Amino acid sequence: MHAYALTGLLAITLLLGSGTAALSDDKEAHIGDLVKDAKITAEQAIKTAMEKVPGTVVEVELEKKHGKTVWEVEIFGADGTVTEVHIDATAGTVIDTEAKKDKHEDKKKKKK
Q1: Which of 10, 40, 50, 102 is the most exposed place for a label (fewest CB within 10 A)?
Q2: Where are the domains of the chain?
Q3: Do residues 64 and 74 lie in contact, with contact meaning Cβ atoms separated by under 8 Å?
Q4: Are the CB atoms for 49 and 57 separated by under 8 Å?
């Protein structure tokens, strides 16, 4: 339970601290509009994401993707990989998961 409180605090800090939303497809969207669209909280999105991918939450963003308001939760897994879990901010369901590429690996491949 302590982990949920800590990750919830992290999510709120990220949202309030940034002042703007990280936007993918619809750059003109405003954070206020995203928050109004979201029917689930960051804490609920984190809980759903961690049920899908166990680990430590390292980042949470509310953004617009493909016309939908989505919580993007990045989780550092026990195997050392970072996975993005996209949660529908209206329905609270998992849309998809995506392994995040390691920037260091990409640089190593380019040097070879």
Answers
A1: 102
A2: 2-111
A3: no
A4: yes
